[in-house]
Amino acid sequence: MKKYICITCGTQYPASSHPPEACIICKEERQYVHPDGQQWTTLEKMQQSGNYSNHFVDEQKGMKSITTIPDFGIGQTAYLIEEQGFRLLWDCIAYLDDKTKNDINEAGGLDAIALSHPHYYTTQVEWAEAFNCPIYIHEDDKQWVQEYTDRIIFWSGESLEISEGLVLYRLGGHFDGGAVLHWTKQSDHQAVLLTGDIIQVVADRKWVSFMYSYPNLIPLPAEIVMNIAEKLKPLKFGELYNAFHREVTGQADLAVQRSAERYVAALEGRLIKD
Question: Which residue ranges form the domains of the chain, and what is each CATH number?
């Protein structure tokens, strides 16, 4: 029995004698099946290959990024945040090995894992078991969990304080339960918003964008984008980090608002100049 991992998106499935017929996450229109067809691996196979390692970067005081090299699956970045002694992993990456476990444990371990949306669930159960901690997922995305564990806490409502200074907000959009993490940073009160790709930082780092599907370029309706912006209006944050090592630095809260306005203007044909 093996726990098979989809090579395209990194989602791990429960132990079985044969690979699943298809990856549920990739078959859905927000993701895609690789043109060469469905392909599978396992965490053990990845570890034994010697091809992969996790790279840690100190992004700022209290926050490290974790990225797998070379890219695997979607290629997202996870973030390890420490606030007043509480250590939270924001989003997951598929690859996990002994060195990663040792590095994290030597620094203080993990107290919790929180997920923005289903594309980054990956090997979340392996991570939670390795560090003996709970996983926080919004209940609106419960149907997308492929491997269940008692460690998963399905939270409800529009916000959840995991620990002082670390609050999850459900924005929806990309997925119904799409969540972001607001980190108030007690050390210097310069709040940070971590968004996965519920909100995506674009090439011009002064702007962000919003999509139903990024790989398939399916936009969100104007009403949903404005609702996301409205939910964030009460929050102050100077920086915003997405899942691909991009950030907006300086008045990121205002960047989200003006980006939402530009997005809606484009949908309504008001952005195009004669």
Answer: 4-44+53-267 (3.60.15.10)
